[in-house]
Amino acid sequence: MDSNLNMTPSSERVHIVFIGRMNSGKSSLINALTGQHISIVSEVGGTTTDPVRKAMEINGIGACVLVDTAGFDDDGELGEERVKRTGQTIGLADIVVMTIFGKDISLEKKWYDCLKEKKIPVIIALTKADTDIYDNELVNRIEQDFNQKPVLTCTKTKGGVDELRRQLVLSLNNSEQERFITGSLVAPGDVVMLIMPQDIQAPKGRLILPQVQTIRELLDRGCVVISTTTDKMNDALCSLKEMPKLMITDSQVFKKVYDIKPEKSKLTSFSTLFAAYKGDISEYVNGAEKIQYLTGESKVLIAECCTHVPMQEDIGRVKIPGLLRKRFGERMQIDVVSGMDFPEDLSVYDLIIQCGACMFNRRYVMNRINLAKEVNVPITNYGIAIAWLNGILDKIELPEATE
Q1: At residue 203, does pLDDT exceed 70?
Q2: How many domains is the chain built from?
Q3: Any idea what DSSP says for residue 309?
Q4: Where do the H-state alpha helices sit in 6-71?
Q5: How high does pLDDT run on average in the chain?
Q6: Can you tell me whether residue 154 is helix, strand or coil?
Q7: Beta strand pairing status for 299-303 and 122-126?
Q8: What phi and psi values does residue 61 have, to the nearest 5 degrees?
Q9: With contact defined as beta carbons under 8 Å apart, do 305 and 339 qualify?
Q10: How many angstroms separate the CA atoms of 332 and 403, rounded?
Q11: E strands within 149-190?
């Protein structure tokens, strides 16, 4: 196992989600692929209830998260809720492995069509190939219906497991592209100053994930990194022979840093960087421009990805609502969701404000953006929204959009 495995955040790993009917061999296939007993295997239908996640390092794939899900034909007492969670989990998928065991593939075809509509790559795995169910006619029909040659697997003999791994590597390599948190804002040798307030939200003895990831990337890209807190920013600037090319701060002190930064230094925030890295910054900027049309009667959704206990200075639950209500009145309705919770009906909202999403992968964030677009509800991001509310959105540095 790679010694750096535990250094890779789950949000940066490739998410491989296994779906299929109950007892179609999802759990057995995951165990065979990893060589570990990750998922419980049973002949009893509905053994897998909540999605089971396992962070792994697989040769050829690298750092990844394998996700086992409940059968999408689950009709037990809690079947509807389990199937719903399977659907939510697909939003995280960089690639899906769909297991098939049986001659009726109508339900599989519906899920497959949904995945293709979302542009999520799918590999079809025919399980339990040691049985006599797979005649040439069935295999040919599956190949035609799913427009790909299925992988025949047998977990008892490990048959087809290497081919499945090869197909995963091939598919992921075809879709992989190098992306940077800081985009084209920096070059080797640039001096970059990070202004990081260590308030009540900062974890004791640690930096928050966006700060850590940004620092590591800047070092890898050959930048000179200066880190300070807001109250020491002037001292840090005075200690430099040349002013920073770029300054990156926490969105909640955007205005304060902007007012005292050197004129030639460009300014952005961690949340703004992650808006492009994890989502669609063009859509977020368009969404922020819609803030001006809100009223005291508007309804706003604030969507966080982490599930920390709310704190006194919480940016999503306290600071952003405070800025909105100060501008539009106390009657404005503001709902807050966290983790993977996301309302099924977004049409009731006038605006959605999404966090930087350092805890989720880009696929999941783009899924949220697309859901908002489907019902014509504007969506923006913490950093972009705060910059607009402070009147400096046109004055800060925006990273380029990521395809």
Answers
A1: no
A2: 3
A3: P
A4: 26-34
A5: 87
A6: strand
A7: unpaired
A8: -100, -40
A9: yes
A10: 35
A11: 151-152
- 3-class SS of residue 183: coil
Q: Which of 178, 86, 111 is nearest to 124 (CA)?
A: 111
Cβ atoms within 10 A of the Cβ of 135, count?
10
Residue 306 to residue 357: CA distance in whole angstroms: 8
Query: Residue 59: what pLDDT?
Result: 81
**pLDDT exceeds cutoff 70 at 176:** no
As a whole number of angstroms, the distance between CA 205 and CA 214 comes to 18
Residues in a beta bridge with 1 = none
245 shares a domain with 150: no
The CATH number of whichever domain residue 384 belongs to comes to 3.40.50.11410
CATH number of the domain residue 112 falls in: 3.40.50.300
- Residues 257-271 pLDDT 10s: 999 999 999 999 999
Rounded distance between C-alpha atoms, residue 266 and residue 186, angstroms: 10
Q: Which CATH number is 268's domain given?
A: 3.40.50.11420
Contact 91, 51 (CB under 8 A): no
314 and 345 share one domain:
yes
Q: What global pTM score does this model have? A: 0.79
The confidence band for 206, taking pLDDT boundaries of 50, 70 and 90, is confident
pLDDT for the residue numbered 172: 83
The pLDDT of 179-200, averaged and rounded, is: 89
**Structural domain boundaries, residue 224:** 191-272
> Does residue 315 sit in the same domain as residue 384?
yes
How many Å apart are CA 4 and CA 216, to the nearest integer?
13
Q: What is the pLDDT of residues 379-391, one digit of tens each?
A: 999 999 999 999 9
Q: What angle do CA 316, 322, 327 make, to 5 degrees?
A: 130
What is the Cα–Cα distance from 195 to 67, expressed in whole angstroms?
Answer: 37
Angle at alpha carbon of residue 79, lines to 75 and 85, rounded to 5°: 140
| 134, 199: one domain | no
pLDDT exceeding 70 applies to what percent of the chain?
89
Closest CA to 87 of 105, 102, 67: 67
Q: Which helix (H) or strand (E) holds 225?
A: strand 224-228
66 and 41 inside one domain: yes
Q: Are strands 151-152 and 122-126 parallel, antiparallel or unpaired?
A: parallel
The pLDDT tens digits for 155-174 are 888 899 999 999 999 888 77
